Structures are given as structure tokens and as C-alpha cells.
Amino acid sequence: MHIHKFEKIWLIFGVATLLVFLSVIGVSAFYLGNQPPSCLATINPEQVDTQAPFDKPGLNKVEGKEWDYELVFVASAFNYTPGEVEVPLGAKVKVLATTKDVVHGFNVAGTNINMMLEPGYISEFVTTFDKPGEFLIVCNEYCGAGHHLMSSMIKVVE
Amino acid sequence: MAQPGLEKRTKTKVEDSSSLKGTLASVFLLGFFLIITWVGVFLLFLNRF
Ligand SMILES: [Cu+2]
What we know:
The structure holds two protein chains of two kinds. By secondary structure, chain A is α+β, with helices and mostly antiparallel strands. Chain A folds into two domains: about 1-35; about 45-155, Sandwich (Immunoglobulin-like), CATH 2.60.40. Chain A has one helix at about 5-30; strands at about 40, 60, 70-75, 80, 85-90, 90-100, 105-110, 115, 120-130, 135-140, 150-155. Chain A is elongated, with a radius of gyration of 20 Å. Chain A starts with a helix and ends with a strand. Chain B has a domain at about 20-50. Chain B is elongated. By secondary structure, chain B is mainly alpha-helical. Copper (II) ion binds near residues 78, 143, 147 and 150 of chain A.
């Protein structure tokens, strides 16, 4: 079969870039252990307030884990608990969030923390807060009449 | 009066219609655009927490 020289060039180029992109995703998933924020951790949405760790929303210090703090958020129409929280600069934090009613979003603007909160599921994200400042949390899943009023704030302080 | 310009024969290079030069250029243009935007988003991902 005859293939034009140029065709060979772009076929090889295309396959090579595809392999590079896929290996980046593969390394991220299987070597670095990245996973979707909602990864099969479940909770009864009607008993969120009584179940750990959601009975204590806010920043909680933990021992003997890969992260130093757990930052717990409960979302419901139309607010987040806590409505504002301070996190020490450089802290390795696991953000845990869930919703008591409908689907909400959890987007910490300007960061990689962007999760969908589904009733019955726990969304998690582990990160190191290495930049000081105020980070607005907004709901980016339309959840009802008060959707646009739904916000919270993370303050990363030294 | 002779019409000006009639004598000027412009010679245009006619490329062989089976040439794939332009195709190669546009494929790589698109390819590099995809790579640059992908790398840009990936760097943004790495720089944020
Ligand atoms: Cu909402």
C-alpha cells in the first residue's frame, strides 16, 4: 500500500501526541492516585448532620493520616456550612463535602477544587493550600431559586 | 491604443494539484494549536492548588 510521505509524518505525529496525552492521564491516575472527587464514598443524605465527619463542619485537625487537616463542608439549599473558614498556609488538607438535599456545586474559584456534590455521595479532594489569600466558593450546579446566593469563603492565612 | 497590461504576462507558479504541502501545513498548524492549548491548561492545573 502506498502512503504519501507527508501522510506518514502526520500519522506518526498524531499517534505520538495521543500516546503522550494518554500516558499523562495514566500516570496521574495509576501512579499519583488521582481519582474523581466522588469515588464511591456514600452517606445517607437524611442523616448528614449526625454522621462523622459531617457532624463537625469546618477545619478539623487529624492525626495519623496523609493530610494534616480535614476541611468539612455541608451544602444545602442555599448555603454552605461553614460560611467562612480559615486555613493555615501550607497545610495539607482533605476537603470533604456533601449535600443534604439536591445536587450542588463546590467550586473554589481559581483553584483545582471543583466538585459536584450529589445527595448520598461524599466528594473529596486532597490538596496543599500553598497560596495565601481569600478564595470564594461558589455553587456551579443550578440548584434552585437561591442558587446565585450560594457561596462561602476559604481564607488561607499565615 | 494598446491596452496597458495586456502584454504583461504574469507567470504564476502552478503547483501540482496532488501536492500535499498545504495539507501538511494546516494539519501541523492545528496539531500545534491543540498541543499549545493542552499544555497551557495543564500548566494552569499544576500551578493551582
Ligand atoms: Cu447550590
